[in-house]
Amino acid sequence: MFSIAGFFLVKATHIYTEEEVEYHLHKIMALVQETLLRLPLLEKNPKMMLWQTPFYDIKNLKDLPESYVDFKKLQLPITSPLLPPTLPGATMELEWGSLPTLDELKQFMNENPLKLKESLTLIKGMSIETVLQKKLSKLRETNISNLNFKQSQRNRVDKSVFVTQNKNVVGGGTNSILNALAAYLRYLEGTARDDWQQVHEKLRDAESRDGASFFTLFGPAICLGIISRRRVHYEAIKYEKERNAGFLSPFGYSATTVTAAADAVCSMEWYWLMALKGQISDEGTYPIRIWRWNGYLIQYTVVGNEGPAVLLVHGFGAFLEHYRDNIHGISKGGNRVWAITILGFGKSEKPNVIYTELLWAELLRDFIIEVVGEPVHLVGNSIGGYFASIVACFWPALVKSVVLINSAGDVIPGYGYLQFSKERKTSVVARLGAQLLLLFLRLNIRTIMKDYYPTKTERADDWLINKMLRASFDPGVLVVLESIFSLNLSLPINYLLEGFKEKALIIQGMKDPISDSKSKVSMLKEHCSGVAIRKLDAGHCPHDEKPEDVNPIICQWVVAAESKILAGSIS
């Protein structure tokens, strides 16, 4: 926020703002610049000056390698944090005016063009676990006990560094964050201090997998700029040297907390640099935007200025560019087309979290609410189709219709009692399996993709293969692959689509090498009443293998769905 009156009073010549990558922050900065140009009575308009706290000493972002492996080979030095400067005092008499009333604040918020629609915002208020529990409890008399979260007893601690209602996020000023970080890094040493003991307790609660606690506790403070990524790295390395008489081992860090902190901020910096490079790059046929979800950077694009909103969701291991020949094709049918690279894939961030189908469904829900801002026609391929089905089932107000392209998920006849657990545990077996799977995929990705495109193998081209290989070397990719061993697809497709009769379209490539398409189509016809089915002579990814067939099908479907919605509203 800035005050126009302040410019006249202090005669400001420059406005300093941190360089950001999120699209909505770019819009705000553009609005400020536009306002400055229109300011009257100023001899010279103030200039906008971008600043950043560089983690690595990079001279030119355009030279940033595409591959994380190549980036590490550069061995760029990590810059040291700077001490805060002492600013000279200034005495001036200012007319501060009066504080706005509560009604005035409410009016400002209601007139804010960036304000979310209230009806959509309310949908985010209830967690997916709560929605799932209510839905499944209708199928039986008792609620699901294994969806209940264990709440640790919360003891009041003087000078607590935790500021949220749930007392699970570190907050306060920089000194408070540094104190909590010192406690976190020294977890193995133990402590008699109450405030540090509380940090250690929250660390244990948040350690859903090795190292996951760091971002859970400190992520918001880093994203808000209370402490920089390079300051975290500096403190972690300083403590590591203290433990080892000033030396750093080439074989890794001696404390798991140091590893968690250093790895997290280095990973965050890599994805931030890729996002920043994407803002200045002219490559690609559509604009790449960045959205921050729960602190993580998510890539998306939008094409088209009017018409119904269509959201495209890719499958496992893919990215928004997998719809390379669908985005423009569907938008030319009179639609606004959104495509997203979900968390853990492509150039979106790959944080150290436990990935679940519910996590990805919540991401899609929040994207529809915060970015699209209106209900969508939701299109999903493979596992992306299963995520789309979950969103449609749990938050039907956000979805006008569903299009599933060779979707994951089974059809279970006569389901009556569904067991579902949110509990996911990592294991040594899963980690080893992820490592072996990653090696196998890197060696065989070309053959695998050719099999996925049986009628047009040339569509599995070098561009697609190289995009997938590039992402496979990103930090955090092994954590994503571990999810394959814990994904829960027990909710059947016929249950998830139950409320979408006449509003669901199945596009099925009949030569899919990873499923029995004939059997699946037969089951869908028998147990999913009111679902339209279109069969294509294609493999697992018909949208990319035969976009000339899929695009008209989707466009015609959206027109028909919109007509039904309009007819329903009139009647």
List the helices and strands and how they pair.
Blueprint: H1 4-10, E1 14-18, H2 23-37, E2 47-51, H3 68-73, H4 102-111, H5 118-123, H6 128-137, H7 174-185, H8 194-206, H9 213-223, H10 229-243, H11 256-280, E3 289-293, E4 296-303, E5 309-313, H12 327-331, E6 336-341, H13 357-372, E7 376-381, H14 383-394, E8 399-405, H15 428-452, H16 462-471, H17 477-482, H18 493-496, E9 504-509, H19 517-527, E10 531-536, H20 542-545, H21 547-570
Describe this structure in words.
With 571 residues, the chain is an alpha/beta fold. The chain has 21 helices and ten strands. Strands 3-4-6-5-7-8-9-10 form an eight-stranded mixed β-sheet, sandwiched between helices. Strand 5 (309-313), helix 12 (327-331) and strand 6 (336-341) form a beta-alpha-beta unit. The longest helix is centred in the middle third of the chain and has 25 residues, at 256-280.
Content-based structural category: alpha/beta
The geometry reads as globular
Q: Whole-number average pLDDT?
A: 87
Q: What is the number of E strands?
A: 10
The oligomeric state of the chains shown is single chain
Across the major sheet, the strand order is 3-4-6-5-7-8-9-10
Strand percentage, roughly?
5-15%
Provide the low-confidence segments as ranges: 142-155
Q: How many distinct helices?
A: 21
Largest beta-sheet details: 8 strands, mixed
Radius of gyration: 26 Å
| Helix amount | 40-55%
From the N-terminal CA to the C-terminal CA, the straight-line distance is 46 Å
